[in-house]
Amino acid sequence: MIDVLAPATLLSRFQDDFAHALLATDDAVSPALATLTAQPAFAIYRNTVMKGCIDALQGNYPAVTRLVGDEWLRAAAAVYTRDALPAQPMLLEYGADFADFLARFEPAAELPYLPGVARLDRLWTEAHAAASEESLDPAAVRQLASGNFFRARLQPHAAARWAWFSDAPIYTIWSRNRSDAVFDGDIDWQPEGALLTRPQDSVQWCALDRAGCAFLDACAAGGSLADAAKAALAVQPDADLGHLMASLLEAGAFSRLDLNN
Amino acid sequence: MTHFLDAGLGLKPQHYDAALACSTAGLWFEVHPENYMVAGGPRLAWLEAIRSKHPVSLHGVALSLAADAEPDARHLKRLADLARRIEPAIISEHLAWSTWRGAYHPDLLPFPRTTEALARIADNVSRTQDALQRRIAIENPSHYLKLDGHEWNETEFLQELARRTGCGLLLDVNNVHVSACNMGYSAEDYLDAFPVNAVMEIHLAGHAPDPNLGDALLVDSHDAPVAPAVWALYERLIRRIGARPTLIERDDNLPAFDVLLAERDRAAAVLRDQLAEAA
């Protein structure tokens, strides 16, 4: 925002004009900048800014890139970047809403699973960069006195991320495209969920059913184990809660067990 | 905390394991702090592991010190937090701007060197040094554009900036070569006029001709070995001013770690010869 009380300095005006010219076409730049944009060297700055943003998006969305190819991804990223430069310089954070962009990006309309895959790429980045903490030892839950069990609260690990996709096998599509490995099996077109965790400081992932996602949502909202169990059974009445809890604990999805209300 | 730094290498994630295993004496590594501004996880763990074996310097690209605005307080705090954690041997930044009115442009952008700009940048450097509680080094940029309105030449601008703020300087010899070619002046004259007493660190890197304009426009691309002309400028400089911590930068078209280490060893040999001669 320009402070209306202070006259703009020469440096401010230069930076307003220069920043605008980086993304504008030559006929739209300020007359004060015309002698700069007329020089072939101005293209170096335009190219470097665009390349830096596009490289960052490509790096942050590897499964999306593998699905659509470098050329498609970079063209889509250029459209995204012209609309939204990074708001801060940690480029790992750039494009946090790229999934939403893809959902309304006309050329992606034929790939309805793309926003979901982008969402899992983003959750991977969040899991990768989250604060470090120990995972809860599964024995802590096994040793709970039965009277305390249902009022205990499990705190999801800072790096745990999960999502349920009700209309496509996003987890299978994403996990098959998160590495260079080649998969040729058919994909069952069914709803899927995913869990990402970071035990021993490296991001890992597994499929998670609807009950598991509801269970973790309830834990994250501060609910007790009774609340979480109820939420899981509400969405999936046949859920095996013992098996579910054991696999979540094994994956390192929790950091703490609280008995205080 | 003082380390004797001789020649170091810019560190890329692809080389973490080799860097960690390397025990070359005097070797140090430089990273962009923006890549390690995370709450936790493997990136910080890697950097801390490297730091446990080698000195590390933080070379920022995003403080935007030449913007007509104070440095972002949140970004300064992130840098200060990382510096507390890593205890870097040197912290450096650029005589350039990148963040403007809430948008980050991933580049090092130019500005007219006016007295007004000097006052703003000196204030920004002082704020940064106050926040970090230490002296930082400011790097001379690469130039591509013929800009109107300069009131200062660059060497005098940097000298005055160092005088007003007490900051050090990072002398990038490749940037001097690239800028001299692009702007049509003598790199030797520029180096002879540079306020060398403030130099805390020297950078060496590769450049490339512009794909359209060829040698008429050199780009500071960091994607090639250090050019012979840049080595010649560096050797001449070190003979004149004595040994200074020297870093090889490489960001693109990355070769094997050993290839970079050999380039680094060449710089280390230049420094060693100078020290032997001075002794």
Query: Which chain pair shows the most residues in contact?
Result: A-B, 44 and 49 residues
What's the quaternary structure here?
A: heterodimer
- The helix count of chain A comes to 13
Structural class of chain B: alpha/beta
* Strand arrangement across the biggest beta sheet of chain A: 2-3-4
* CATH architecture classification name of chain B: Alpha-Beta Barrel
Number of strands of chain B: 12
Element string of chain B (H = helix, E = strand): EHEHEHEEEHEHEHHEEEHEH
Helix content percent band of chain A: 40-55%
If strands are numbered along the chain, what order do they take across the biggest sheet of chain B? 1-2-3-4-7-8-9-12
| Outline type of chain A | elongated
Regions of chain B with pLDDT < 50 over 5+ consecutive residues? Answer: none
- Roughly what fraction of the amino acids of chain A lie in strands? 5-15%
CATH topology of chain B: TIM Barrel
* CA-based gyration radius of chain A: 24 Å
Shape of chain B: globular
Number of domains of chain A: 2
Number of strands of chain A: 5
Class by alpha and beta content of chain A: mainly alpha
Overall CATH class of chain B = Alpha Beta
N-to-C CA distance of chain A: 46 Å
